[in-house]
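Students often ask why inverse folding is considered easier than folding. One informal answer: many sequences map to the same fold, so there is more than one right answer. In these notes we will look at a single instance of the problem. The structure comes first.
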């Protein structure tokens, strides 16, 4: 960050979206603290962080958009049990985003652990690039501003921001893992039940 300045902040936030283990809860408060030392402005820090974050969201958005609804349904039907996604889930997600896509993207960009993932269903649902960028920008600027301002105010205590937000991220990630396990077992049992029913029908 000291060596690359604004470009370094943008790069770190880009990587934070591509590779989630890099936490914005550390990057942006540190960037805010760095702005207090001179050489960078708080506004510049927020702009750089927001730009990097938005650029990092685009690859995930296009990954969902390129595969599309039909191919994702086929993929879910064949391999869905390994990622706990069924064809019905794809249908429900598409319907949900058709009704609430814009607000879902905006709110999702404010939630640790969800910020990156929200781009994928937005792309799958066919959400247009302009509204995706618009609502992503609103959520992203709000999130990066909050973290950077906290770091700016706390100065050399900037790491306290991560200490407060980290437990929230841990709870969300733990919940996602438990949800994954539950959905995997449910779909596995459902497929076994379907096979038994098909075998019984074939026997009759």
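Output (designed amino acids):
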């Amino acid at each position: 960050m000291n060596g690359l300045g604004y470009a370094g902040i943008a790069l770190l936030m880009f990587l934070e979206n591509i590779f989630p283990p890099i936490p914005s809860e550390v990057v942006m408060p540190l960037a805010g603290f760095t702005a207090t030392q001179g050489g960078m402005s708080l506004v510049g820090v927020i702009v750089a962080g927001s730009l990097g974050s938005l650029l990092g969201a685009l690859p995930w958005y296009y990954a969902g958009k390129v595969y599309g609804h039909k191919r994702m349904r086929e993929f879910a039907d064949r391999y869905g049990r390994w990622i706990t996604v069924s064809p019905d889930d794809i249908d429900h997600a598409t319907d949900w985003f058709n009704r609430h896509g814009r607000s879902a993207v905006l709110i999702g960009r404010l939630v640790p652990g969800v910020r990156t993932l929200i781009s994928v269903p937005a792309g799958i649902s066919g959400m247009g690039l302009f509204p995706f960028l618009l609502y992503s920008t609103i959520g992203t600027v709000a999130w990066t501003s909050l973290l950077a301002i906290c770091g700016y105010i706390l100065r050399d205590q900037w790491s306290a921001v991560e200490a407060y937000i980290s437990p929230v991220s841990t709870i969300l990630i733990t919940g996602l893992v438990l949800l994954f396990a539950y959905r995997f077992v449910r779909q596995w049992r459902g497929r076994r039940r379907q096979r038994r029913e098909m075998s019984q029908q074939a026997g009759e």
